[in-house]
Amino acid sequence: RESTAAVLVDSSAMSGFKEHLQGVRADVARRRNERRGEPPLEFRLRPVPTARRLWANAMGGRLGIGSDGNRVALVTEPKTGLKLPGEYCVNGGKCAPLTGMGVRIKRIAGIGVKVYACGLYVNPASVRAAVGDRYVGESVKDVAKDQALFDAVNGDPAVEKTVRLVFARDIDSAKIRDALSERLRPALGDDSPSLGRFEAYFDGVTFEKGQSLTFTASGGKLITSFGSKEAGQIADGKLCTALFDAYLGKSPVVPSAKESLGEQLAGHVTG
Length: 271
Prior knowledge:
By secondary structure, this protein is α+β, with helices and mostly antiparallel strands. The N and C termini lie far apart (42 Å). The chain contains ten helices and eleven strands. The relative contact order is 0.16. The strands form three sheets. The protein has a seven-stranded antiparallel β-sheet with strand order 3-4-5-6-9-10-11. A two-stranded antiparallel sheet has the order 1-2.
């Protein structure tokens, strides 16, 4: 089944080399054709922007194709050195910029251990549509910390949201599953079929350093992807809200990502 989420190839170093190699091959072909007097080959295979995004999805997103069909820069999370796409596209068409970034740090025996880099993707225009003129003229600094803004983002199914995790170390997926389930269970209940399906995604999976885990809430559906492979979709608005509450709620697991998201969104809803 075709993936519905644009994601990066799991090994950033290898992916970067492959991307470079593809570019070199394209340049060689172009120069060879120019020497032969043949027209450049761009016209023959270069797809329209929507097709490019679909191709990026199929290739794991390393092509970095944005909403205008151009390449999207990768952004380095400074504390881990891991890379996140500057824009994330779903279903080959809906794209949102990287609007929040941080790192999950877990304290073990008093030592802070970096678990994963976290990227949050929300289209500011959709947030502005959700909140209207409620914050116009208010202080950006105050709005950026207003929990009501985050609740509006999380509570509106029309506001598409993506959180992308890129792991900074090898980790058993059961640990990620258990941590997320701990946040989901109070909202969904122990007998929730959606929770059971969600937990089953992680069976027998191990995340290696550089691999990604991505969640997108789109129209009341939660789309989960491991690396370049979509694990599945669950149509449950409560599941979407509960999962993103872990990142946008009052007690976020990555406070720095939420903080930077608030700063970005506040600048759009106050003007």
